[in-house]
Amino acid sequence: MKAICVFCGSALGSDPAFSRTARQLGEELARRDLTLVYGGGRIGLMGEVATAVTAAGGRVIGVIPDKLSQKEIAYAEATELIVVDSMHTRKAVMADRADAFVALPGGFGTCDELFEILTWAQLGIHRKPIALLNVEGFFSPLLTWLDQVVAAGLLKQKHRDLMRVADSVAELFTGERLGVSLNSSLR
Fold first, then answer.
1. Which of 28, 64, 85, 183 lies deepest, with the highest CB count within 10 Å?
2. Model-level pTM?
3. 78 in Cβ contact with 64 (< 8 Å)
């Protein structure tokens, strides 16, 4: 494994645990010599994780649409900043450059990225691990809804199981709740 794509908010959110966890994840990626692939922004949780990777001496690949780059929200300190023509291209480039995916708290954009990458896994387009970092139970209502979708016969359990869940950065990498660590599953 060389690179992990992180989906997360362009806002900080109201819970300080979101920012703290984003920074912890960034520090851990750098410590493990894993490249961060992400949406290229310098604001919100995206900025927190990227800044933490950079501060810890890690590598950051930002992928940002030209329109957002023009608004001067691009993370100029990225090791590599890829400016693309659209959000669709952004997601494709991030997926191509990553070996695994992790979602932190976020809004519509985070959910869009997460569900598209899950759908691609469901369709067999990729076989890369996908994990939620369930900071302070942020994703618990979503997980309950997904269980309801399975119970309603609209999603197979094997596809629901494509998404691994961890409650902390340490757990994400140790696999205590994942059953298999994110690291070892990619070897």
1. 64
2. 0.92
3. no
